[in-house]
Design a protein that fits this description.
Helix content is about 35%, strand content about 30%. The protein is built from six helices and seven strands. The radius of gyration is 16 Å and the shape is globular. Bound molecules: 1-O-pyrophosphono-5-O-phosphono-alpha-D-ribofuranose and adenine (ADE). 1-O-pyrophosphono-5-O-phosphono-alpha-D-ribofuranose binds next to α4, β5 and α5. It is found in: Cytoplasm.
């Protein structure tokens, strides 16, 4: 399926959510994709198609909604799944990275032993807004010894200028909103 057709299908489903962004409410939500098996499969198939030629060593997913899309893709491709979690959630030895968000700050952690040394990692999240989360997650993976090759988000909000923070990284989104 063409990128424009995928975007149109996903947009139609995302718009089903109550309170779909309107002036003053700009929170974009992916739960309606998950509630529609055909759309959920469309996302995973689109990821598979997009990364058909890529030879990753692992997929890293960002808590919480990034987990949902990364997991089926990792199983489908037979790749290790790395969970990047918020502070205080991982019991083993972790390394951490502070991140700056639209409103405030947070901290991401990963188990050191999960990241393959010099391994090529695909980072997955549900949505890219300012890019602060993915930028921090990329730094975290690098600190742990991995290499980040690609970033994936189901939804992109380019009006928040995420590409400024994600230079030198290949970014793929399936549907973009311009914030109107
Ligand atoms: O590009 P950014 O400006 O960094 O924003 C994007 C991040 O914000 C949301 O996560 P949130 O922090 O709401 O966490 P959640 O997935 O646990 O709900 C979203 O799932 C991304 O991870
Ligand atoms: N505008 C937004 N909509 C949904 N999730 C987000 N995470 C950060 N900004 C967001």
């Amino acid at each position: 399926m063409y990128k424009a057709d995928i975007a149109a299908k996903l947009d139609a489903v995302i718009r089903r959510v109550p309170n779909f962004p309107k002036p003053g409410v700009l929170f974009y939500d992916i739960t309606s994709i998950l509630a529609d098996p055909e759309s959920f499969r469309l996302v995973i198939d689109a990821m598979d198609q997009r990364y058909q030629k890529d030879d990753f060593d692992a997929v890293a997913a960002i808590e919480a909604r990034g987990f949902v899309f990364a997991a089926p893709f990792a199983v489908h491709r037979g790749l290790p799944l790395i969970l990047i979690r918020k502070a205080g959630k991982l019991p083993g030895e972790t390394i951490s990275q502070k991140i700056s968000l639209e409103y405030g700050e947070d901290e991401l952690h990963v188990h050191l032993t999960d990241v393959p040394e010099n391994g090529r990692v695909l980072l997955v999240d549900d949505l890219i807004a300012t890019g602060g989360t993915l930028s921090g997650a990329a730094s975290l993976i690098r600190k742990a010894g991995g290499e980040v090759s690609d970033l994936f988000g189901v939804v992109g909000l380019p009006f928040l200028n995420y590409s400024d923070k994600l230079q030198d990284l290949e970014i793929t989104t399936l549907v973009d909103y311009l914030g109107e």
